Amino acid sequence: MELNTLDWIVMLSTLFGIVGYGVWKTRSVNNVKSFLLGDKDLKWWTIGLSIMATQASAITFLSTPGKAFQDGMGFAQFYFGMPIAMVIICVFFLPIYYKLNVYTAYEYLERRFDLKTRMFTALLFLISRGLAAGITIFAPAIIMSSILGWPLEQTNLFIGILVIIYTVAGGTKAVSVTQKQQMIVILTGMFIAAGMIIYKLPADIQFTDALQISGKLDKLEIINFKFDLTEKYTIWTGLLAGVFLFLSYFGTDQSQVQRYLSGKSLNESRLGLIFNGIIKGPMQVFILFVGILVFVFFQFNKAPIHFNPGNVEAVYASPNAVAFQSLEAAYDVVFEEKQAAIRVFNASEENSIDYTSSLAMVKTLDQQEKDLRNEAKALISQTDENLDTEDGDYIFINFILNYMPIGLIGLLLAVIFSAAMSSTASELNALATTTMVDFYQRAFKSDESDKHYLVMSRVFTVAWGCVALFFAMIASLFDNLIEAVNIIGSLFYGTILGIFLTAFFLKQVKGNAVFVAAIITETVIVCIYAFTPIAFLWLNLIGGILVLILALLIQQLMGNNESDPMLDSSTT
Amino acid sequence: MEDQSKLNDQEEAPPFLGTWKRVYTYTLILHFIILCSLYFFFNQYA
């Protein structure tokens, strides 16, 4: 598919405009503190938007509407624990970081425990975030290249190099100021997209009708009260496991900690976190709701039987082409019948005979449509078992490119690239800071000039940019990209959070005990993920609690011979 | 958490609601209201 010239102009001018603004705005950054912590002058709204932009990657805007299209609003529950986590961070984490005046969250661990615990935790962060940065770049690139025919490697390079330019030039401050612009572009683009979908619904379908139709097809069940450890999204995973995930992500992941440490004061940082806690959940609900609107739109406009055009092309070029075409023909018939049944349902009085019978018909046809989609997926697998049949990530972009007006397509592509760039920039900035502060400066060169550290911080930013690009080049498509990032996070976050919780709440536990506990826990978590059906969100809670319990037990067994570094440093 | 309580005693008041304890309480109440509203809004169509 070819992009119109106007779309190219809108997309490129938006992206280059933001990058140029970031570089210009931070041209005076000339010392390492300014590069790693900004000038500590950010107000709460910039911090809040920066925190939101760091978390919301391109995956958020590609995957989330697709998730709502396929499974409904249930994914929103994932974010229900966020305000609770924000309050806990404001009360316990933030004041300590401010008091100790740290550059990274892991510095605190050396003061509380010892060097090896600091380095082990920083290493876990580098591994998980380094991998995630690769996926953050790769996710939009693979989808854009598949839909628009852009070469994958060049698309990866385009995103990666743009991010590296302004992150290297202006460090933390460049990340924060560009994120503010990026969030404005993202929110504007998504609101316009939602408005356009409602505008493009048939004249006899009102907004409330759209809700009625999606509700009857089980898309609006936003809260699931069932307690089942194998279910990914329930109110319990959100409120219990989700709190642990967000505590770990926002409280101990340097890519987030660095955002609020660049605040003007403790108060500004707190307000930024609270702002994020309140706004983020509704924002995700809104993005999911855009997916629901796309679902309703496709009840009246024929959707392809499979949304990944690359897979469809592969089947068409194989001996399965005839079978696939007959599936498409059957799908067309079901679509026409379903559309007619929906119109009857929509026009009939509630609880009338027409209402009941047409609703039953809509549900039956909806199931048939799902069955046909699954048959199409089976045929794709049969054609080439290496093809990924999950097409949820392609739904929204497919809709944008085929049904949005010229100009708006360019803006929405800019939304996707802006989101990719905003989170990648935070990640590179945090990876470089941790490498610089927790490893290079701490263990190798502790007595160099400020200029040397500034140069090395820029070198590490470029190096991590190259590592992320390398992972992006070799990554393969997971079932759902947003899940892939969350799974990688969940494998490490529980342990990292457990170490921090031990530091804050179990004063009797010393470095050796928490270090051994963390290593055992990480091994257990990887085994649980590999060998049990427990949903990945629970790994955060299990990891966090396991470190606390093991650290306490091991400390009891070891006795109380170790010295306390915090006590030592305060008495010398 | 002795260090913690000392830190909290020394901190500045928030720009609204007087104390941080109140800000946190109202944040959680607001969150609860948002959750209930979302549930009842979508549930009427489900």
How would you explain this protein's 3D organization?
The complex is a heterodimer of chains A (572) and B (46). With 572 residues, chain A is mainly alpha-helical. Chain A is 78% helix and 0% strand. Chain A is built from 22 helices and no strands. In chain A, helix 3 (44-55) packs across helix 8 (152-200), helix 3 packs across helix 12 and helix 10 packs across helix 11. Chain A starts with a helix and ends with a helix. In chain A, 55% of the residues are buried. With 46 residues, chain B is mostly helical. Chain B is built from two helices and no strands. Chain B has helices at 2-10, 20-43. Chain A binds chain B through residues 73, 76, 80, 83-84, 86-87, 90-92, 95-96, 99, 211-212, 214-216, 218, 220-223, 265-267, 270-271, 274, 277-278, 281-282, 285, 504-505, and chain B through 1, 3-4, 7-8, 11-12, 14-15, 20, 23-24, 27-28, 30-31, 34-35, 38-39, 42-46.
Kindly summarize this structure in a few lines.
The complex is a heterodimer of chains A (572) and B (46). Chain A is an all-alpha fold and 572 residues long. Chain A has 22 helices and no strands.
